Amino acid sequence: MARYILKRVLLALPALLGLVLLTFVLTRVIPADPAAMLAGDAATPAQIADIRTRYGLDQPLWRQAVTHVRQVMTGDLGSSIFTGRPVAEEIGFRLPATLELTFAALFLSVLFGVPLGLLAALDHNGPVDQVVRLLSVGGLAIAGFWLAIMLQLVFSMELDLLPLRGRLDVALGTPPTVTGLYLLDSLLAGRLDMFGNALKHLVLPAVTLCLPGLASIARFTRSGVLETLQKDFVLYARAAGYSPFRLAAIYVLRNAVTVTVTQVGLLFGALISGAVAVEAIFDWPGLGTYAVQAILAADYKALLAVTLVVGVVYAVVNVLVDVAQALVDPRVAEQLK
Amino acid sequence: MSDMLASAPEAPSLMTVRDLAVHIPTDAGVARILDGVSFTLPPGGSLGIVGESGCGKSTLLRAILGILPKGARVPQGQVLFQGQDILKTPVRGRIGFIPQDPYLSLNPVFRAGDQLLEGMRNHAPGTRDDHRKKLINLFHAVQLPEPQNALDKYPHQFSGGQRQRLLIAAALACDPDLVVADEPTTALDVTTQREILALLRSLISERNMGLLFVTHDFGVLSSVCEDVAVLYAGRVAEYGPTGNVLADPRHPYTRMLLACHPDRATDLIGIPGTVPAATAQPPGCRFHPRCPISRPNCAVAVPEAVRIFDGSRVACPYHADPLPEVALG
């Protein structure tokens, strides 16, 4: 198993190097000239040229690329060309916020998506199946920003049950940073009040963000279960006297979720990009809002760093997915030998 | 149909299937998969069920095992196992099952032990440890290599022949009185096939178990089964001691089927036509559209089973007529 994990990690490295180079090239082919934007509308060509020299933008592209890769390797993501603050510091604060949100959404998707898919498959073409199908079409079709505003209207404005925005009530301060995930840090600090408050803040954004994922996980689990039910080994298991519950929830489901697990890896990308809109609406201080600001300001340093960090997170998640898959299906680990 | 049962009414029976019908509603109408199937298996006896694909062999097994597909109905008939109608009160653990394909019958994501012990967990007394010990002993009996570790391996770590040995061991694990085998060697190569059959035969006769053996291979049939029932389109065409049926087949279908067998035919020819769809069974004798000696009456009247001699019967009134040469190759 250790060998398998190592192999998956090694396979991810070239992809990451490719990502570093590709994002670099992309930020250079966009029409906006960062030097000109930074210098402002009133700048003279001489001032712009000066800025260009200072940031190394006058160097040949390949030299810039080499410098860029070298800096990234040493963990130096540079400073924002607008605020001057180190990008790594900014991301260090915002990444946990985004991770907390996306993992919460992922957790909800799996927690509800898998059982819904299972129930639908067991009632193939029956009423439960129809309802789940309707829900999953709805989950994919409903626009996140609309749902977010509706949830805010109902649960925050009307019922006053859940907070409207942010990660924590300002009055509570913040938990001492260990992981940057408020739920975890507040527990580590023994602050149950803070934990509850952070959880309340998390509910609406996470629910908004989880719906498309929940819908697709339900669909994939459903078709996985239906496919598995056709297998000869299910017939054999029935003859061996499995109770219907054990058969469905343990014996069949484990085969069925091999497809779902792959789906979770793909889903994670969608969750992170979905987080951009959700973070904006709920004023969630995550990477998404940061990325939007960077795009609007043509802050290429920040943009590169965000893309890279998201890429790394995505790669890590996919390695985890591969490991999960090997745990679910013992044949997977052996295929890679 | 009543005289079909008359063959041995007082003889002790391990399993008696009486006039069994299984219907499955489909979009294309009701599929009459089985229609009036009857046979008797004495204790310790062995009966082969032969027929082409789609004749209802597998459905018959599933009815006996109590795992008919969803929606299947049993409009008539009984399956008496040791005198008990198992369609009403399923018996578990007293009938062992060896499935058709050892590659597909084990779930790839669970250890062999997790699956093979399930039958004992549900049907046999004792703790899991007892069950493990017993199954490992059986692994020795089925000559599985490294029987001690087998339970903790995954199915893909065994060869096809080894998997079939696992399944045979599991079928015997609850000390059943009857073992039901669904073409247990078709997925294996010929050498392995022979070993597995020899093993199965000796295990079954040592333990004095009954055997119900589905196959479409006459060679396998003659080496394993004392009696044979030839199934065609959900009905028993011919029934009798294997030796007799193979040496002197009477039903036109059996005669042509045997003529198709490459070991017997000089020129290989098939039976023209195909088994009718279960939703569109022809009236009268179900074989008549393909039968070279069918008469107008065959399309009208369902043929009664005719006793040829003791323990043999054939569902064709014209079983004594010769078939045209061309039909027999």
* Protein chain pair with the most extensive contact, residues per chain: A-B, 21 and 26 residues
Cross-sheet strand order for the largest sheet of chain B: 6-7-8-3-9-10-12-11
Largest sheet of chain A: none
Subunit arrangement of the protein: heterodimer
Low-pLDDT segments, ≥5 res of chain B: 1-9
Put simply, the count of helices of chain A is 14
Strand content range of chain A: under 5%
Element-by-element helix/strand order of chain A: HHHHHHHHHHHHHH
Describe it for me?
The complex is a heterodimer of chains A (337) and B (329). Chain A contains 14 helices and no strands. The longest helix of chain A has 39 residues, at 244-282. Chain A is 77% helix and 0% strand. In chain A, helix 8 (182-188) crosses helix 9 and helix 12 packs antiparallel against helix 13. With 337 residues, chain A is mainly alpha-helical. Chain A has helices spanning 2-29, 34-39, 45-54, 61-73, 87-122, 127-141, 144-158, 182-188, 192-229, 232-239, 244-282, 287-296, 300-328, 330-335. In chain B, the strands form two sheets. An eight-stranded mixed β-sheet of chain B has the order 6-7-8-3-9-10-12-11, with helices on both faces. A four-stranded antiparallel β-sheet of chain B has the order 2-1-4-5, with helices on one face. In chain B, 46% of the residues are buried. Chain A binds chain B through residues 231-233, 235-243, 251, 254-255, 258, 328-331, 334, and chain B through 62, 65-67, 92-93, 97, 99-101, 104-110, 115, 118-119, 122-123, 154, 156, 167, 170.
